[in-house]
Structures are given as structure tokens and as C-alpha cells.
Amino acid sequence: MAKTINTRVKVPANCPAEEATSPLCGERDDVATSKPYGRVPIDGGGSKGKTSLSSFLKCKRAVNIATMNTRTLRSPHKQIELCALAQDYKIDVIGIQEHRTVHDDQLQYENLIEGFQLITSSAWRNSMGAAVGGVGVLLSNFARKVLVSVCYISPRILKVTLNGNPQTTIIVTYSPTNVADEDDVTDFYNQLTKATRKYLHTTFS
Asked: What would the pLDDT profile of 125-177 be if each residue is shown by its tens digit?
């Protein structure tokens, strides 16, 4: 009969039980027990009968995040084209600048083709009455399922939070141009600095 060789390193006998997770004393799985402690539940897991949001970032799933200055998204065919591009390149989140759509709501939610959702803050009008600016985010069907919140910070800054451990925060921005008023530039960067510092460890911007 073939002899089974155990290649696992045993926990030192003088290692206290409470220190079994220390790198110097091996992992908990090295403790002689059929049911090791400290197992981390899989993404979206939990107790039987309970459901929870899945995580946006996963080791076994590639996640693509992009940004795009669309110059306008007012026409339906532009929205369809954007969704098609996101689907072709397997992009889950696209931060959008200059959609140029003016609406009354602080945040507007639109369900598009193939399960995509477009969330925008309103653009504004310049001195000539033309619609300019506007930020938003396009979410794939997967990203929609793990969406926690969308927060309006300013007409140029939008914060999107996606579930995970820790949560993933994406800040979409449309910065002032080099001909903008100095006060507008200062206000924008003050707001952006405040937002990124608050979510420093989980932020993409």
C-alpha cells in the first residue's frame, strides 16, 4: 500500500492558540481540526436564507473602468452607440463628461439597452443659452446590481459607490478649462480635494 506523505508544516508546539494566525506560527488551517476557524465567506455569501450584494472587485473577474468625454448624449442613437461600445469592450463603468443634457432633477436615471443604466447630473447653460458640461456614469447590468449609491457633489463632480469589502468609490469629474473664471477653478479643486480625501483608500477618479 502506498504511503501517504503529509507535506504540511505543523504549528510549533509552543505556539499559543490565540497566536495561531501569526505569520510566524503558521495559518489557522495548520491547526489540527476538521473545521478551521476564520474562513472568509465568498463574495455575496452569507448565512443560508440570506442574500446580500455581490462585490464589485473580485479576484476571479476582470473589471474594466473607463472615462469618456462624449461631447453630447442628448440623442438616443448616441446613447445606443455608447452602450454598444461598452458591451464590445466589456466595460462595466464609464465615467462621462459633457453629456450636455439639461434636466430638472439633481440626478436622472435612464434605463438603456442590454441592461445598461445611465445616471447623470444636469448640464448647465452658458451665456448664449447653449447646454454645456454635465457629468454622469454608465453602468453595466453587473455594476447596477452592486450599486450602493450615487451622490451629487457639484455640477462637475459625481460620486459613485459600489459594494465590496471595502466598498469601491469612483469619482467622476469634469474640470474647468483654462479660460474658466479663477474662482470657479478654485471651488472645483477644493471640492475635489475634500471628496478624494474622505474616500482616499477606496477611490478611483
From this structure: 999 999 999 999 999 999 999 999 999 999 999 999 999 888 899 999 999 99
**What is the phi-psi region of residue 62: left when phi exceeds 0, alpha when psi lies from -120 to 50, beta otherwise?**
beta
Every domain of the chain and the residues it spans: 65-204
Count of positions (residues) in the chain: 205
- What's CA 50's distance to the chain center, in Å? 24
For domain 65-204, the CATH class is alpha beta
* Spatial CA neighbour of 139 closest among 170, 110, 117: 117
Q: Please, where are the H alpha helices in the chain?
A: 76-88, 141-145, 182-198
Q: Quick count: other Cβ atoms within 10 Å of Cβ 205?
A: 15
Looking only at the bridges linking them, the beta strands covering 157-162 and 93-97 are: unpaired
